[in-house]
């Protein structure tokens, strides 16, 4: 059955010849009734989705990386219209977790032969996220990554280089107050990481995938609090052999409130970042997102 499909793309994709060519090919592969709408980062994605549905879209495809996919998904919560993902980013964690190929042409064929499935997504202070949200050194890594990307290009090797540069600048752990399940505790940590992607956790050998399956968060609280310990932890993550209890503590819950010692803190969510005022409240979305799962998944889908 052929559906009327709206393909939502980051406007900058039209300025990147590789992405523009991939989108053109994939639009032809998605079927005979496909139209494209561009989105400017920072503008109202909800208005773009409204336009897509007003033009009769029965399915929506987000073309881009995890940040673009997150923006589209957030605007589609509770709408009941199936969302497909065309991976064009650097890491494409959400698409890979769905079992989609990182090759856009093959992913387009998988989207055509896919079934709708409802999921809940993570929320932090009203912001939706699909893979993860975090406080501490990871948001700092993302900030450094953008500087590296602007100079050398958006390559995974450059992303890894930004990790080392950030670790070398690390000074001291954060002081956090955590409230969950009727309990309050204080921790000192370089990183609080809220995981919502079983694929991403398993990719790095981190425990907690079962919590994702149970509609909960896998909160990773880093134990490393010196530069040397951070480098050692990163090395074990690269080998997919982090040590639970030594490198990190795992906390699983469906709601967590986090107070920081500073008035504002840098928050990362699916590769995007924002300096926000606390406290930070993590919870599961009430509305559900309808996603398209391929019948012929690639790799290890979760």
TrEMBL record:
Q: Which domain of life is it from?
A: Bacteria
Transmembrane region positions?
Answer: none
MF terms in GO: kinase activity
| Residue stretches in coiled coil | none
Show where the DAGKc domain sits: 1-128
Which InterPro entries does this one have? ATP-NAD_kinase_N, Diacylglycerol_kinase_cat_dom, NAD/diacylglycerol_kinase_sf
Which Pfam families does the record cross-reference, listed alphabetically? DAGK_cat (PF00781)
Would you tell me the protein name for this molecule?
DAGKc domain-containing protein
Biological source species:
Palleronia sediminis
Q: What is the lineage of its organism?
A: Bacteria, Pseudomonadati, Pseudomonadota, Alphaproteobacteria, Rhodobacterales
């Amino acid at each position: 059955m052929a559906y009327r499909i709206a393909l939502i793309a980051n406007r900058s994709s039209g300025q990147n010849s590789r992405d523009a060519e991939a989108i053109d090919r994939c639009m032809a592969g998605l079927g005979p009734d496909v139209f494209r709408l561009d989105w400017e980062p920072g503008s109202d994605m909800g208005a773009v989705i409204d336009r897509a549905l007003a033009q009769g879209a029965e399915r929506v495809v987000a073309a881009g990386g995890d940040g673009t996919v997150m923006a589209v998904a957030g605007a589609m919560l509770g709408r009941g219209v199936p969302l497909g993902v065309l991976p064009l980013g650097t890491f494409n964690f959400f698409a890979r977790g769905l079992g989609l190929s990182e090759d856009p042409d093959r992913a387009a064929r998988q989207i055509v032969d896919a079934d709708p499935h409802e999921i809940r997504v993570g929320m932090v202070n009203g912001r939706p996220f699909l893979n993860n949200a975090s406080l501490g050194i990871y948001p700092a890594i993302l900030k450094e990554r953008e500087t590296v990307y602007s100079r050398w290009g958006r390559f995974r090797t450059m992303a890894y280089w930004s990790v080392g540069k950030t670790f070398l600048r690390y000074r001291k752990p954060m002081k956090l107050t955590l409230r969950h399940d009727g309990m309050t505790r204080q921790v000192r940590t370089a990183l609080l990481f809220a995981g919502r992607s079983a694929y991403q956790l398993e990719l790095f050998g981190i425990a907690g995938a079962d919590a994702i399956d149970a509609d909960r968060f896998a909160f990773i609280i880093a134990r490393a609090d010196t530069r040397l310990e951070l480098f050692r932890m990163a090395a074990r993550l690269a080998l997919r052999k982090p040590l639970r209890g030594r490198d990190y503590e795992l906390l699983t819950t469906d709601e967590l409130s986090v107070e920081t010692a500073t008035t504002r803190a840098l928050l990362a969510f699916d590769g995007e970042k924002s300096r926000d005022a606390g406290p930070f409240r993590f919870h599961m979305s009430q509305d559900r997102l309808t996603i398209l799962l391929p019948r012929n998944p690639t790799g290890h889908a979760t």
